[in-house]
Amino acid sequence: MIGRSNLQQAVPITFGYKMAALLAAIERHRQRLAELQPRVLVGEFGGACGTLASIEKGALEVQAGLMQTLGLGVPDIAWHTVRDSIAEVGAFLGLVGGTLGKLSMDVKLLMQTEVGEVYEPFAHGRGSSSTMPQKRNPISSCYIHAAISVVRQHAAALMDAMVADHERSTGPWEIEWIVLRKRSA
Known about the structure:
Elements: E1 2-5, E2 8-12, H1 15-40, H2 59-70, H3 84-110, H4 139-160, H5 174-179
Antiparallel strand pairs: 1-2
Helix pairs in contact: 1-3, 3-4
């Protein structure tokens, strides 16, 4: 297949080369995820201002026991309004989404009628046109592109939620409640 530079034909490459570059990114994401987990899977239990002051005796032991029961790490210190770990998860998902977006963009471009170098699977008529039988639409790539756009917007909102006031904020962490709302199955 042909390699492209600024959407113009450049030098020959293989499809395997194109996919190997994306696989390398996926492998970096796997490494990031492994590094990320111990930092972000940490619980929060610190009382109104994070000092555990309302528990008169054994506060740290209570906190440790709760974290053990929940299967979470014990925080170094309360993080009521220091939300970098949650934002880091959003940034990670944004990076994964960017890689998937790159893949979907390339597939869409390579499926163009004038190019025709790759195609999405055409099982059960998926991607067929209701009015033009010669067309084969990149449906999965279109959905990926739309979904990752939403993920990137949510990642940006999680960054905004980091800008919080004092020890118990007046609204920024509620951004997380909107972005990370529970989905019922």
